[in-house]
Write a structure and sequence with these properties.
The chain has 355 residues and is an all-alpha fold. The chain has two domains: 137 residues, Cytochrome c-like domain (Cytochrome Bc1 Complex, Chain D, domain 2, Orthogonal Bundle); 141 residues, Cytochrome c-like domain (Cytochrome Bc1 Complex, Chain D, domain 2), CATH 1.10.760.10. The protein is built from 15 helices and two strands. It has a two-stranded antiparallel ribbon. α3 crosses α8. The chain is globular. It starts with a helix and ends with a helix. It binds heme C (2 copies). One heme C (HEC) binds next to α4 and α5. One heme C binds next to α4 and α5. Keywords: Heme, Iron, Metal-binding, Oxidoreductase, Periplasm, Peroxidase, Signal. InterPro entries: Cyt_c-like_dom (IPR009056), Cyt_c-like_dom_sf (IPR036909), Cytochrome_c_Peroxidase/MauG (IPR051395), Di-haem_cyt_c_peroxidsae (IPR004852), MauG/Cytc_peroxidase (IPR026259). Pfam families: CCP_MauG. It is found in: Periplasm. Its EC number is 1.11.1.5.
Length: 355
């Protein structure tokens, strides 16, 4: 054997010796971290954040909470193509899941918020979501409920006021609890070989060999790694695919709405595929109703690949292996203002129409 052949064979042989099968896939995938908590995420803060997340009184009509569109009793979304907020108004985009949203480098389809805290300020004052006029009005509502003031003080100090910064800090702490580790893929990567079925393993290998992992890699299958920068992918990358017109995939400019840079036209954040079986319909416009069709669309629009039905079945089987263990959540008991409602919707609505 001459030197050059040996040089080629040796690293391969060493790689095979050192790496088990699971480690080969571990280059593309990683187990979901079992915690996303930051220092300061105390139980009291998380409980306060949970209350605010579930409280519909933070909306103008008193009917819409974060949980209305991000139902954590299920997939963390609303199952609708696009969400419905106060007064039956609908927005332009599909609600992403809040499960595992801690594991991404930016929030929203176009990444316009860098953090969960910044993100949580948006919906309260979006007129098609919670419809409040301004954050001051949200804070006024919270302060109308005396027990909330005490809870804010218990978490943020006796001298602290109820502020929007503290409110979103608490909500984000709660969202960091919304993680779903120990999916079959995680157990498989931890060398529990029977954690995934043979169809799921075939699907995983196809997912890698087709090129899906170019974007959907890492613990949340969205390209995120701890401390990674926000990245956006072109979608659709193959603009003449028939699916593009069928599902109106170019109506929304995506990232450039947020960055103002036309080079970002039709770029979107790669979404997590964790629990993707639970969050139909799919894509930023919610136009694709089934996961099988979403896989066909992705293969065609991102990789110029036409999948067979058997391949689609294996890919969707793989995605079932991304359903994790959901933490036990106990319904919060929301504080009330004794003997009085804090919702004065008709007057507030008039005020909104006048402003
Ligand atoms: C009326 C429905 C609605 C309500 C109410 C709502 N959201 Fe959302 N949420 C959405 C939609 C739609 C998006 C995506 C919007 C976009 O990308 O432009 C979104 C995006 C998000 C994201 C980003 C997830 C990701 O993967 O990028 C998080 C986190 C989130 N919402 C949390 C919250 C919190 C916290 C509240 C309450 C303060 C809330 N939402 C209220 C519909 C809603
Ligand atoms: C070039 C990057 C890239 C590649 C390659 C890619 N994706 Fe995606 N994927 C994305 C982006 C970006 C989105 C969000 C599209 C949007 O705006 O709706 C997405 C969305 C999805 C969704 C829908 C998620 C949701 O919450 O609605 C699924 C399912 C999916 N991809 C699976 C796949 C599969 C399977 C493959 C391989 C056949 C693949 N992707 C290849 C970037 C990519």
């Amino acid at each position: 054997m001459n030197y050059t052949t040996r040089a080629r064979i040796q690293p391969l042989a060493i790689a095979i010796l050192i790496l088990g099968i699971a480690d080969v896939h571990a280059q593309d995938f990683a187990p979901l971290p079992k915690t996303a908590a930051l220092p300061g995420d105390t139980n009291e803060k998380i409980e306060l954040g949970k209350k605010l997340f579930f409280d519909p009184r933070l909306s103008s009509t008193g009917t819409v909470s974060c949980n209305s569109c991000h139902n954590v009793m299920e997939g963390g979304d609303d199952g609708r193509a696009t969400s419905m907020g106060v007064d039956g108004l609908t927005g332009p985009r599909n609600a992403p899941t809040v499960w595992n949203s801690a594991f991404q480098a930016s929030q929203f389809w176009d990444g316009r918020a860098a953090t969960l805290e910044e993100q949580a300020k948006g919906p309260m004052v979006a007129d098609v979501e919670m419809g409040m006029l301004a954050h001051d009005q949200v804070i006024g509502r919270i302060k109308d409920i005396p027990a909330y003031i005490q809870e804010f003080q218990a978490v943020y100090g006796d001298d602290s006021d109820v502020t929007i910064e503290n409110a979103v800090d608490a909500i984000a702490a709660f969202e960091r609890v919304l993680i779903t580790p120990d999916a079959p893929l995680d157990r498989y990567l931890a060398r529990q070989k029977d954690a995934m079925s043979s169809a799921q393993i075939r699907g995983m290998e196809l997912f890698e060999s087709t090129g899906c992992t170019e974007c959907h890699s890492g613990p949340a299958l969205n390209g995120w790694r701890p401390d990674s920068e926000a990245e956006f992918a072109p979608f659709p990358r193959i603009p003449d695919s028939d699916y593009v017109t069928q599902y109106e995939l170019t109506a929304d400019l995506g990232r450039s709405n947020a960055s103002g840079d036309s080079a970002d036209d039709h770029h979107f954040k790669t979404p997590t595929l964790r629990n993707i079986t639970l969050t139909a319909p799919y894509f930023h416009n919610g136009r694709v109703n089934s996961l099988a069709e979403a896989c066909r669309v992705m293969a065609a629009t991102q990789l110029d690949v036409e999948l067979t039905d058997a391949e689609v079945a294996d890919l969707t089987a793989f995605m079932e292996s991304l359903e994790g263990e959901f933490p036990e959540l106990i319904f919060p008991r929301l504080p009330s203002r004794s003997g009085e409602s804090v919702i004065r919707a008709p007057a507030e609505k008039r005020q909104r129409e006048e402003s």
